Amino acid sequence: MATSHEVSTKPDAIKLDAESAKKLQGIAIGVAVVGVILAAAGYVTDPHRLAFSYLTGFLWITTIALGGLFFVIIQHLTKAGWSVAPRRHMEWLSGALPACALLFLPIVLFSHDIYHHWMSAEAAHDEILQKKAGYLNPTFFYVRAAIYFGIWIFLASYFAGRSREQDKSGDRKLTEKMQNLAPPATLLFGLSITFAGFDWLMSLDPHWYSTIFGVYVFAGAAVSSLSMLALINIGLQRAGLLHKISNVEHRHDIGKLLFGFIVFWAYIGFSQFILIWYANIPEETLFYRHRWEGNWKVVSMVLLFGHFVIPFLVLLSRHAKRHYTVLGGAAVWMLVMHYLDLYWLVMPTLDHHGAHFSWIDLGGLLAPVGVAAVLIARLAASGHLYPIKDPRLPEAAAVQNI
């Protein structure tokens, strides 16, 4: 059981101080400016590569935001009490989804470069693509994207809006309303992220398919968002802003969730691989063949050990999940691995003979991340650090891990 000295008796800060808020927003703006400059230079230098690099960066920040939305929904679905403060931090991440919708516009502009296999005139001469034309066509592709973002932005705005409203009124019925919406929200979220994964990633190779691919995308979103949550949690605790409502016990719980979803990601990835390997159908095995040619083999092995084996061993210990440096280091590592995972999914479509990292890839990452970070920083700076009138605050403050 947690010892008494691990949980502070100091009061929690309600908001970020003006200096910290200004600094946070300044960093976000700086990242955005550097990213946009690099992306613009990449567009002039090699627009075709920038298209794929930008897709990778866009998916990195969007999956983190979606993982935040999932966390918020699932806490209301399960009526969890421990996660009052972390839920607010995930509301910040999911609040980036309107920015992600705006960031999708370059994908629309680049779409004929990125999805040329089925958007080009050559698709009319491909028997397999002709049978998929009812689904894989530009108009329906854009309509579906609008539907996905409509669902996500509505859900993120609803839960965050009711939560902030409760900060003012303290109305317990708002908690009930959020709990009532959570079941259908879970269904809508699951279907939308699955089909978005099909559209934006799996259709890069329209001959390939995997019925478990949507779950794989979701697993990556969960791991990356929990990693970001761990860093936010650690940052606020080390700044001395949260003591009771977010302490070592909550850090431990976040570490346990992160550990669990790391294992889940590996399980889904292995399940997909072993079924395709066993069936040995040419259209399916080509996906892995392209990721085993040249130095893509090295990237594949780095993912195996870096996204599963190493973090599994590091976070297996109870003490690791409770230690600032170890959990924080693991969280940063997993965010890098999540980017590498998306890079491994996207970039072989550009060149399956080998991985060639470029400064253009950095621009493709920093531009969308910086823009979304500006909105996240604004949300963090303008609102409360946790739901100050949530009816489960006493339960959250009393959490202990055995």
Q: Mean pLDDT, rounded to whole units?
A: 95
Parts with pLDDT < 50 across at least 5 consecutive residues: 1-5
Strand and helix order: HHHHHHHHHHHHHHHHH
**How many strands, which pairing sense, and closed or not: the largest β-sheet?**
none
- Tally of helical runs: 17
Can you put this structure into words, describing what you see?
The chain has helices spanning about 20-45, 45-80, 85-95, 95-105, 105-115, 115-120, 125-130, 140-170, 175-200, 215-240, 250-280, 280-290, 295-315, 320, 325-345, 360-380, 395. It is mainly alpha-helical. The protein starts with 17 loop residues before the first helix and ends in a 5-residue tail after the last helix. The relative contact order is 0.19.
Task: Summarize the model shown.
By secondary structure, the chain is mainly alpha-helical. The protein has helices at residues 18-45, 47-78, 84-94, 97-103, 105-114, 116-119, 127-131, 138-169, 173-200, 213-238, 248-279, 282-290, 296-315, 318-322, 324-346, 359-382, 393-397.
Descriptive tags:
402 residues; mainly alpha; 17 helices; 75% helix; globular; disordered N terminus; transmembrane; transmembrane helix; membrane; Quinol:cytochrome C oxidoreductase
